[in-house]
Amino acid sequence: MEVTIRISGAQGEGVESAGRLTAQALAKLGYHVFAFRQYASIIKGNPTMFYQIRASTTKIYSHGRWSSFDVLVALNKNALVAYEGGAKYLIYDSADRSTPQRRGEVPIPLADYALKAGNKIMRNTVAVGALMGLLGIDISVLADLLKREFGEKGEKIAEQNIQAAQMGFDHAVKAVGSALGFGKVGEPKLLMSGAEALAVGSILAGMRFYAAYPMTPASPIMHFLAEVGPKFGVAVLQAEDEIAAMNMVIGASFAGVRAATGTSGGGFDLMHEAFGLAGMIEAPAVVFLSQRGGPSTGLPTETEQADLLMALSPSHGEYPHAVIAPYTIEDGLYAVAKAFNLAEKYQIPVIVATDLYFNESLTTVDDIDWKRFKIERGELVTSPVVWDEYKRYKLTETGVSPRAIPGILGGMHVATSDEHDERGDVITDRHLPEIRKAMHDKRMRKLAKVVEEMEGPAVFGSGEIALVTWGSTAMPLLDLASLERDVEVIAFRDIYPLNKEAALRALDGAKALIDVELNYEGQLALYLKRELGVELKMKILKWWGEPFSLDELSELV
Amino acid sequence: MTTVKVQASRKPMDFAVVRQPIWCPGCGDYGILEALRRALAEVGAKNEEVVIVSGIGCSSQLPHFMKTYGVHGIHGRVLPVATGIKVSNPKLTVIGVGGDGDGYGIGLNHLIHAARRNVGVVYIVSNNQVYGLTTGQMSPTTLKGVKTKTTPYGSIDSPVNPLALALSAGATFVARGFSGDVAHLAQIIAEALRHRGFALVDVLSPCVTFNRVNTYDWFRARVYKLESVGHDPTDFEQAYKRALEWPTLDPYGKIPIGLFYKREDLPAYEEEVAGLLGGRSPIEAPLELSEELVEELLARFA
Asked: Which of A135, A348, B42, B200 fits a 20 to 30 Å CA distance from A468?
């Protein structure tokens, strides 16, 4: 049992809250839900933004189809005209079209009902009420959500919204009955966005400092942490720019606190120098690189995966780091836990690469595996050391040296951005190639240890065709693999350093390899060719701001 | 200036290391190093609880000559790193050190924001009015008309006035010292170390190699002490007027040194953060959550 609903209207017309309420209602009834928002870089306007909500009794990972859906809720005429062709059922304002043109159309006086309930602004609530009626969802489910949503604004507003919803509900039930029959199918499920998964994962992973500068689509991570973090001991600082944010993270990390920042491509450009500093002074740090369409300001509110090559090699010079790209929102929780452990165990900066589609989509999460949140701090010095003997950058076999933090007696040292010796003393006032050789090699050989912890790509299904991808593009592909026989999905998650043996093992079995990515160059394919010598000759690439959808994938594959 | 009690238990040499500074003989940075050691001894600081953060430039080598923790970071980013440290663990004494290029040029942005946040960092700027380590280019505090490698016909840029800027930005402790008067500078730094919130200590620190204009003698002929003219450091307007004297109003006139402005009644940024966190700092917050807290966290998504 499955339904796909598209709610469309102008930005500022309430599409956002209507979409979220619908997703929440379905999650409450025990459905697996995925909700995706398409919008533009404007606060009010853009008449046809939409929220697409998909719910199913089986596990789903994406918004589903792009050109057809079961229900369209159109909050204005433009939205109605733009998307009606794809929908079986239409809910719209009877002011936009007075007489239905075909079966399944449910014109409702949205504005009139909203006005009757107390305020024209509640048109969206009337529409969601009608949607509940059409879906066959008990109105009390929505009423509870409205109470919670508007409770803070006062009982009266909540009551007015419930009344507005009820009118829409009654109208729809009278017109078409509870046509779709979506009753309760299980226990309520948790519903969270990708950004929230990253934030929650961070709190569970022991992150206690987050500094960032606002940038779509990373901002929701900071929004959540700013609101919820303090209760859990997380300091959240809005920095003056991304350069400051990354340097603040390094300061917090030097002080011994697990710390992270989040940004998108342009902000990460500004962080590069400090990212290299973290590599040089061996300060653990985590960066949430939330991609959007580039280059430059690019497509600020639309998704893309074009920053892989940058993530592989940000900043100048050579230094060890790691890149992890969670392939489902649930995996985001675990990817973050792993990122913080890798960062601290190997004293390196780690990138968690996601994108707008990942960060802003909502999905239900169930069966969280708590074992995956074990905190490992590595070579952290916690008791006094003898200052004359202590070497912060001691040459070791693994390349990892004991890390003393301020406050530890005897652990005094300088973390130096210049090349330095084992004690952290700057050596660049002389020509000391032997020390340079040894220290550079020490840092770089940490990668050999990191790679031991990197997992091979996740493989789903089996078949003649293998779709090779990374990060969030795995989400629609996983859905495709559950629909189409003979399709295998190979999703790279632990990207850099690459576990080559496991990667080759996964790629070797398949007959036809197709690279599927949201960028122009096929950046994963370029990377795999460089690392493995494997060429993915066939590519399905997209770079115009839309995620992949099931209908187009079926056709292309 | 208030008198400070000398704690016999700490000596300036307790903060010294075997390694000797690599600055040119006569460099103003020696005076800053000595003054800082004296000030730390005076306030009874413990080596392991002091962190000195620097950027890039001659003066940013300073942490290497101190027996304390240090971060010798990248150019211009002293204050963000220092902010991250202080907020994470407010028990630490966090000192920023850098030059005028580092703090008033590439990193000027951060000075304004550190000042308005009132983060508890003492920021000592070795102001030599030239880029020394890169061999003598114009700096943000180079006086108009001065010839450098990049201004061979004389600088056409007006200099930054860091003290007036810091006061405008809301800094709660603003002072200027002179490397040629170590005892006076040490007193200023000691008072800055005791201050609640952000403290800017601008130090006139001659570059003996690349700045042939602003020499020790040049400064000696011009500096006067604010405490000797009855300046009231609690009076913002007076402080602002004094700050404008040099270099803004008369770049070749008298130069006030000493404490321009101080107020202790505003909370430091790290106190505000700890307030939000229920009275603890990030380093004190447990890494692992109790089961109840995990449930509370996840309940937000139900």
From this structure: A348
Spell A33-72 as b/e; 16+ CB within 10 A means b: bbbbbbbeeeeeebbbbbbbbbbbeeebbbbbbbeebbbb
pTM exceeds cut of 0.95: yes
Measure in Å the smallest separation between the Cα of B167 and chain A Cα atoms.
19
On whether residue A484 sits in a domain, the answer given is yes
Residues 6+ apart with CB under 8 A from A297: A266
Q: How far apart are CA A426 and CA B61, in angstroms?
A: 8
Distance from CA of A472 to the nearest CA of B (A): 21
* pLDDT at A103 exceeding the cut of 70: yes
The residue in chain A having the minimum alpha-carbon distance to the alpha carbon of residue B293 is A232
In this predicted structure, the answer to whether residue B50 has a pLDDT above a threshold of 70 is yes
Q: In this predicted model, what pLDDT tens digit does every residue of A389-417 receive, in sequence order?
A: 999 999 999 999 999 999 999 999 999 99
Q: How far is A234 from chain B (nearest CA, A)?
A: 6
Residue ranges per structural domain of chain B: 12-299
Write down how long chain A is. Answer: 557
Tell me the pLDDT of chain A averaged across its residues.
96
Query: Which of the following CATH numbers is that of domain B12-299: 3.40.1710.10, 3.40.50.10740, 3.90.1150.10, 3.40.50.970?
Result: 3.40.50.970
How many other CB atoms sit within 10 Å of the CB of residue A148?
11
Residue B194 is classified by DSSP as T
Which ipTM did the prediction report?
Answer: 0.97
Please name the helix (run of DSSP H) or strand (run of DSSP E) that holds residue B123, with its range, or none: strand B121-127
Written as one letter, the residue type at A494 is D
Out of A314, A349, A373, pick the residue that ends a domain: A373
Cis peptide leading into residue A547 (ω within 30°): no
Q: Which residues of A touch B299 (CB under 8 A)?
A: none
Residue A133 pLDDT: 97
What CATH number does the domain containing A79 carry? 3.40.920.10
Structure tokens at A73: 């809720």
A contacts of B83 (beta carbons < 8 Å): 237, 244, 248, 251
Strand partners, A353: A289
- A350: three-class secondary structure by DSSP: strand
Tell me the CB-side half-sphere exposure of residue B102, using CA atoms within 13 A.
32
| Least confidently predicted of A508-512, B9-13, B133-137, B254-258 | A508-512
pLDDT category, B4, cuts 50, 70, 90?
Answer: low
Q: Do B85 and A365 touch (CB under 8 A)?
A: no
Q: Which of A176, A210, A241 is the last residue of a domain?
A: A176
Angstrom distance (rounded) from CA A547 to CA A316:
32
Give the CA distances from residue B70 to residues A246, B4, B81, B283, in Å, rounded to whole numbers and listed in that order.
18, 26, 11, 18
Considering only the beta carbons, identify the residue of B84, B293, B298 that sits closest to A250: B84
Same domain, residue pair A197 and A49: no
Is the pLDDT at B95 greater than 60? The verdict is yes
- Domains: count for chain A: 3
**Residue B116 forms contact with A (CB below 8 Å):** no
Residue A334 reports pLDDT greater than 80: yes
Percent helix, strand and coil across chain A, each rounded to 5? 40, 20, 35
Q: Which domain covers residue A17, as residue numbers?
A: 2-176
CB-CB contact of A330 with A192 (8 Å): no
pLDDT digits (tens, 9 = 90+) for A512-543: 999 999 999 999 999 999 999 999 999 999 99
Q: Is the pLDDT of residue B1 over 60?
A: no
What is the pLDDT confidence band of residue B3, given thresholds at 50, 70 and 90? low
Question: Quick check: B220 pLDDT over 90?
Answer: yes
How far is Cα A18 from Cα A198, in angstroms, rounded to an integer?
24
Are residues A274 and B74, on separate chains, in Cβ contact within 8 Å? yes
Three-class DSSP category at B85: helix
